[in-house]
Amino acid sequence: MDKLMRYVFMGCAAVTILSISIIAGYVVANGVPFFAHTDLISFLTGKEWIPSGHIYGIYPMLVASILGTLGAVTIGVVIGISTAIVLVEILPPSLSSWLSKAIDLLAGIPSVVYGFFGLMVIVPLINKTWGGPGAGSSLLAVIFILGIMILPTIIRMTEVSLRAVPKEYKEGALALGATRLQYIFKVQLRAAQSGILAGIILGTGRALGETMAVMLVAGNTALVPDSILSPVRTLTANVALEMSYAMGTHQQALFATGLVLFALIMAINLLMQYILKRAGRN
Questions:
Q1: Which residues contact 19 (CB under 8 A, 6 or more apart)?
Q2: pTM, whole model, 2 decimals?
Q3: Which residues of the chain are under the pLDDT cut of 70?
Q4: Residue 66, SS3?
Q5: 3-state secondary structure of 55
């Protein structure tokens, strides 16, 4: 039985690696030929996306994706870690258990539902608060909706990491005269930092790769945003909006966009893994 399960686990791992390799190879094979038409620097820094004129520049979408992800992660980290601390250290266990289950349910809500909520609630709220009609579909709406979407991941990972901190740490800190807040911020969070960073990695990947919810609230204008209330188009939305009718060089440009997105996510994951290793050594 041990040998059988070993082969089963190895087979599952092989399927995972093979699947990732096939997807990566397919994107590379269809995206790399595009750079015979437009060089990489021009593709990354070009500010115009005009497929009918064979002009392909993804700088506006790249900026929108990065700014939207950074804003969402900022919201997710501040609110998510704070919520996890409240669940673990402040609320009674019975209430904390119910709230944890409710948060888990948020992770299972389809992205289109989040997008519909953003379209019907967040966009009109932004219109009413900061702008006039049409101003709500903006980078700010993207940040809000992505921030809400990544909260369950960050909260759950942080909560699990905080609960995994040995009780001896708390007992030792309190015995040395530390207050409850001093223990949380100077001992518990530091001890759980590797798990918290892992949650941030997952949340960042979710925010950067989200498509449907972003399409519904972003405004989908391929222009460099000059303010947080400007309409934007992200890399993922650009691919989703145009792939159904793209042909030839246009289709290759969309695959190249996916290739850039894939490389960006890999770079973020490698950076976070490096930070995790350093945190683990410390």
A1: none
A2: 0.87
A3: 131-135, 279-282
A4: helix
A5: strand
